[in-house]
């Protein structure tokens, strides 16, 4: 049926009209595809970002086979999104949107290339596609880089050493070759630092690693490159964020590769798919950008954190195994399954007369891929920047193939229609091949469609088994952290929002607390967002109302150390400083507090507890309706504290400041 429908849909040049639409209703135009006069810019690939931050947090604790299925949809060639590029955060211990990602060097004399999950993710991507390009970019840096200042460029040699350690560690410990490295995400760049980074890369035999700058706006980097010939020599790619498909004259004058090195960031429904379809074409058509990279790869973080579900697909329920292959995955496939980095764009104005756009690419060996999109304004708005009004109407497009493409006889056809009114979309369906007649063919295009026409016969839409149905986070959840060789440095489902909480082996403890979870960031990092002054890790279900949270705690910092357990926690990510909830604190000076906020300003109750540092204690927080009570070591410490808001939220653990502290036998019910 699909093939037959495809035959009707494609009015070939010998005259099939569109079904049920009079030809008069259509605008029509002709477009010439020719390589005789040379080719356009080299295509560098389509990719996505893991990080910036903690966007893949929940992915790692999916059980098999579901975890591998998700990874296949993202990275396996001719399967799903078939991504050409994976960009990851170089973790810096600071909040970078939806959480913190651990640094490979928490402290100056510390190196560990097994923290976090980006190493694992890069290896899984390479396993599926050995050709995939890898990019590393820092959002935050550990405090020691700035020697007390919230700035990474005062000691550029230290920062360069830190970044190069990450690149060398990727190779030494994981056999990963990093292809590109960035400077500092969406923050200032330093010309001196960039030059020193290039020098240090070369000194360590890393000539193949290319530099992207500055992962912010087109300016001032483009202008500075035109003024500074030495800098011009060491920057390989100008990467701009959310360019709205436009570039600037200075960027073109540099003659550098131009990338949209972060884009999309839009809720992954049909409108998100429309946004993605439009910018994948128009970033080149309008802005000469030869790579577009989506933030983010997969929405694997609690949905109520900032920018929930702004990934190409959704995988936020490791406890149930449920995930969803969203429409943007199949929009990606329209380009990625039929092109490769190293192909070239054809020199052609890709604007369609009736609105929408097309691009054409070739491998230089006779293969041709054409991608057409007809996204309407209201069905393709991205999260940013604002989209000026435009109109798209049904139209007939006739393409003339010239030069080396004149001999092409048939083109494979893949089609998506985003169904906004009907509510049912048709995604990445193979239609009947189109016959090219004397070097031309015609296509009747409706609105909100994507077509790929290609000489390649390799495209594939996976028909995988359905994942398990969704389930809420378990209402009774325990973790004793008793694991000798954990596969990851962080305990499952805990989402660090300030600080870093890692598995710890407490060799000095002969008793029940050999294996614990420890907060390890002891100085405020060089921040990207507004990290809290306290550390905090969230877990559970944001919709929880009544709950009991129990945890063994161990304050390591003498005199002014302190820890908390909490419930009904209402915020995280870049908004972590304004987090409210019910917080039960105990301090090394033997006092306790109950507060309505993470900052500790809204005091609901306080008193003496007898808690001391360097000893284990058990805290219990019970929240029922408008009332809360707390136990210490199983005995009531405070009760009948009235709670007004928030009315629901996550459970959490954390510390009073950037300080060492340990947690064990966590239980929430």
TrEMBL record:
<dbReference type="InterPro" id="IPR049161">
    <property type="entry name" value="GH59_cat"/>
</dbReference>
<keyword id="KW-0378">Hydrolase</keyword>
<protein>
    <recommendedName>
        <fullName>Galactocerebrosidase</fullName>
        <ecNumber>3.2.1.46</ecNumber>
    </recommendedName>
</protein>
<dbReference type="InterPro" id="IPR013785">
    <property type="entry name" value="Aldolase_TIM"/>
</dbReference>
<feature type="domain" description="Glycosyl hydrolase family 59 catalytic">
    <location>
        <begin position="43"/>
        <end position="337"/>
    </location>
</feature>
<keyword id="KW-0746">Sphingolipid metabolism</keyword>
<keyword id="KW-0325">Glycoprotein</keyword>
<keyword id="KW-0326">Glycosidase</keyword>
<keyword id="KW-0443">Lipid metabolism</keyword>
<dbReference type="InterPro" id="IPR001286">
    <property type="entry name" value="Glyco_hydro_59"/>
</dbReference>
<feature type="active site" description="Nucleophile">
    <location>
        <position position="262"/>
    </location>
</feature>
<dbReference type="Pfam" id="PF21708">
    <property type="entry name" value="Glyco_hydro_59_C"/>
</dbReference>
<dbReference type="GO" id="GO:0016020">
    <property type="term" value="C:membrane"/>
</dbReference>
<comment type="similarity">
    <text>Belongs to the glycosyl hydrolase 59 family.</text>
</comment>
<feature type="signal peptide">
    <location>
        <begin position="1"/>
        <end position="23"/>
    </location>
</feature>
<dbReference type="Pfam" id="PF02057">
    <property type="entry name" value="Glyco_hydro_59"/>
</dbReference>
<keyword id="KW-0732">Signal</keyword>
<dbReference type="GO" id="GO:0005764">
    <property type="term" value="C:lysosome"/>
</dbReference>
<dbReference type="Pfam" id="PF17387">
    <property type="entry name" value="Glyco_hydro_59M"/>
</dbReference>
<keyword id="KW-0458">Lysosome</keyword>
<keyword id="KW-0442">Lipid degradation</keyword>
<keyword id="KW-1015">Disulfide bond</keyword>
<dbReference type="InterPro" id="IPR035394">
    <property type="entry name" value="Glyco_hydro_59_dom"/>
</dbReference>
<dbReference type="InterPro" id="IPR049162">
    <property type="entry name" value="GH59_C"/>
</dbReference>
<feature type="domain" description="Glycosyl hydrolase family 59 central">
    <location>
        <begin position="345"/>
        <end position="459"/>
    </location>
</feature>
<feature type="active site" description="Proton donor/acceptor">
    <location>
        <position position="186"/>
    </location>
</feature>
<dbReference type="GO" id="GO:0006683">
    <property type="term" value="P:galactosylceramide catabolic process"/>
</dbReference>
<dbReference type="GO" id="GO:0004336">
    <property type="term" value="F:galactosylceramidase activity"/>
</dbReference>
<feature type="domain" description="Glycosyl hydrolase family 59 C-terminal lectin">
    <location>
        <begin position="496"/>
        <end position="669"/>
    </location>
</feature>
<dbReference type="InterPro" id="IPR017853">
    <property type="entry name" value="GH"/>
</dbReference>
């Amino acid at each position: 049926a699909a093939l037959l429908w495809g035959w009707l849909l494609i009015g070939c040049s010998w005259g099939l009209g569109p079904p049920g639409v009079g030809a008069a209703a259509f605008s029509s135009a002709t477009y010439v595809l020719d390589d005789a006069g040379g080719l356009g810019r080299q295509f560098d690939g389509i990719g996505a970002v893991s990080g910036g931050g903690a966007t893949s947090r929940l992915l790692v604790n999916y059980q098999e086979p579901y975890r591998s299925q998700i990874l296949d949809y993202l990275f396996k060639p001719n399967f799903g999104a078939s991504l050409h590029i994976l960009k990851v955060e170089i973790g810096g211990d600071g909040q970078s949107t939806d959480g913190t990602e651990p640094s490979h060097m928490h402290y100056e004399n510390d190196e560990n290339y097994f923290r976090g999950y980006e190493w694992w993710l890069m290896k899984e991507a390479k396993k599926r596609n050995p050709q995939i390009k890898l990019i590393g970019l820092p959002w935050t840096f550990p405090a020691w880089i700035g020697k007390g200042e919230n700035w990474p460029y005062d000691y550029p040699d230290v920062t360069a050493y830190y970044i190069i350690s990450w690149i060398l560690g990727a190779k030494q410990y994981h056999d990963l070759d990093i292809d590109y490295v960035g400077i500092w995400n969406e923050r200032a760049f330093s010309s001196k630092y960039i030059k020193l980074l290039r020098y240090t890369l070369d000194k360590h035999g890393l000539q193949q690693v290319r530099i992207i700058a500055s992962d912010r706006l087109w300016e001032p980097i483009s202008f500075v490159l035109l003024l500074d010939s030495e800098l011009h020599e060491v920057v390989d790619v100008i990467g701009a964020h959310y360019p709205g498909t436009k570039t600037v004259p200075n960027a073109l004058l540099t003659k550098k590769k131009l990338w949209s090195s972060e884009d999309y960031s839009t809720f992954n429904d049909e409108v998100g798919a429309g946004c993605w379809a439009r910018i994948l074409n128009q970033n080149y058509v309008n802005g000469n950008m030869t790579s577009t990279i989506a933030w983010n790869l997969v929405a694997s973080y609690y949905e109520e954190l900032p920018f929930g579900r702004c990934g190409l697909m959704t995988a936020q329920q490791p406890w149930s195994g449920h995930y969803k292959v969203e429409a943007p995955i199949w929009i990606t496939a329209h380009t990625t399954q039929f092109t490769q980095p190293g192909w070239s764009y054809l020199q052609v104005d890709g604007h369609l007369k009736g609105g929408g756009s097309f691009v054409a690419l070739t491998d230089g060996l006779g293969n041709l891929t054409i991608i057409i999109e007809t996204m309407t304004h209201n069905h393709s708005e991205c999260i940013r920047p604002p989209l000026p009004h435009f109109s798209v109407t049904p139209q007939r497009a006739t393409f003339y193939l010239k030069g080396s493409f004149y001999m092409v006889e048939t083109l494979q056809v893949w089609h998506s229609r985003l169904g906004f009114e009907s509510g049912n979309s048709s995604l990445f369906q193979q239609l009947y091949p189109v016959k090219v007649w004397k070097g031309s063919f015609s296509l009747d295009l409706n609105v909100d469609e994507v077509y790929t026409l290609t000489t390649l016969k390799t495209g594939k839409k996976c028909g995988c088994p359905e994942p398990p149905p969704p389930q809420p986070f378990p209402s009774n959840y325990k973790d004793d952290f008793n694991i000798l060789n954990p596969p990851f440095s962080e305990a499952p489902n805990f989402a660090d929002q300030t600080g870093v909480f890692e598995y710890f082996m407490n060799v000095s403890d002969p008793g029940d607390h050999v294996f614990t979870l420890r907060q390890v960031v002891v100085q405020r990092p060089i921040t990207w967002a507004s990290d809290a002054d306290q550390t905090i890790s969230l877990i559970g279900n944001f919709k929880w109302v009544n709950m009991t949270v129990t945890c063994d705690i161990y304050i390591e910092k003498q005199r002014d150390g302190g820890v908390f357990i909490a419930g009904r926690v209402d915020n995280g990510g870049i908004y972590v400083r304004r987090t409210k909830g019910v917080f039960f604190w105990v301090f090394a000076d033997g006092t306790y507090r109950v507060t309505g906020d993470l900052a500790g300003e809204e005091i609901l109750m306080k008193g003496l507890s007898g808690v001391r540092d360097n000893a284990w204690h058990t805290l219990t927080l019970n929240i029922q309706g408008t009332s809360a009570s707390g136990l210490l070591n199983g005995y009531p410490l405070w009760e009948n504290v009235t709670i007004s808001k928030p009315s629901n939220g996550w459970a959490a653990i954390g510390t009073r400041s950037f300080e060492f502290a340990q947690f064990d036998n966590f239980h929430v019910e």
